[in-house]
Design goal:
The protein is about 30% helix and about 40% strand. The chain has four helices and ten strands, in the order H-E-E-E-H-H-E-E-E-E-E-E-E-H. Strands 1, 2, 3, 4, 5, 6, 7, 8, 9 and 10 form a ten-stranded mixed β-sheet that branches. The radius of gyration is 17 Å and the shape is globular.
């Protein structure tokens, strides 16, 4: 287990699958079988989101593999400009540049992540945690805005059929002036769209792995 995350953080993520912690949260939108809740932060003036949904015909272990495979994500996620995992003085971190629509500047992230495959009284649950970090060897680029406050948690388990039940909690502060319409689009359409793209990616993952060999 990564020392960047606590045991409580892993436990809290999977428990949302059973008992969503929504006190103080509002239902923001429900679309394509996905429910998105949000909570306003007085400190940042931004929203944090919780997402509850499913991926049909995608087994949870496959979902976890696809989510963790950075090389594959560069193929199926059209918003990725650059995505690499490197070792910085013994600390593994990921550099991720995200395409933003013109005339906005792209955003980039440096973050750490950890995955745990849990067995909870016979239930198999996959949890992935991620959060931003500072790495001196990865300086900011001209024309790209560094996202310095980012966190995400993901919990996946079998939906009782051939698919996966998914919980996601995320927050990031993109910095700069982001139009409200873009923020709302990202939450209302971008997240369900990401899950749809990921579902398609799961269906094509076996082919990708064969071609990679």
């Amino acid at each position: 287990m990564s020392l960047d995350f606590t045991e409580d953080e892993f436990q809290a993520a999977w428990r949302e699958l059973d008992e969503p912690q929504l006190e103080g949260w509002e239902l923001f939108t429900e679309t394509m079988g996905v429910k998105i809740y949000r909570r306003y932060s007085q400190e940042t003036g931004l929203y944090e989101y919780k997402v509850f949904g499913s991926l049909k015909n995608c087994a949870p272990d496959l979902c976890a593999e696809v989510y963790m495979d950075l090389a594959y994500r560069k193929q199926w996620d059209s918003y990725v400009k650059e995505l690499t995992e490197k070792d910085y003085d013994g600390q593994s971190a990921i550099y991720w540049e995200v395409k933003y629509p013109f005339p906005l500047s792209n955003r980039d992230y440096v973050y750490v992540r950890a995955r745990r495959d849990l067995d909870i009284e016979g239930r198999k649950i996959w949890v992935v945690l991620a959060k931003s970090c500072e790495v001196s060897q990865c300086p900011e680029k001209n024309g790209v805005i560094r996202v310095k406050d980012y966190k995400q948690s993901l919990a996946i388990e079998n939906d009782g059929d051939c698919g996966s039940k998914v919980f996601m909690n995320y927050f990031d502060n993109p910095g700069g002036m982001i139009p409200t319409w873009l923020v709302n689009w990202a939450a209302k359409s971008g997240v369900p769209g990401f899950l749809t793209d990921m579902q398609k990616a799961c269906n094509k993952y076996e082919s990708f792995c064969k071609n990679k060999k």
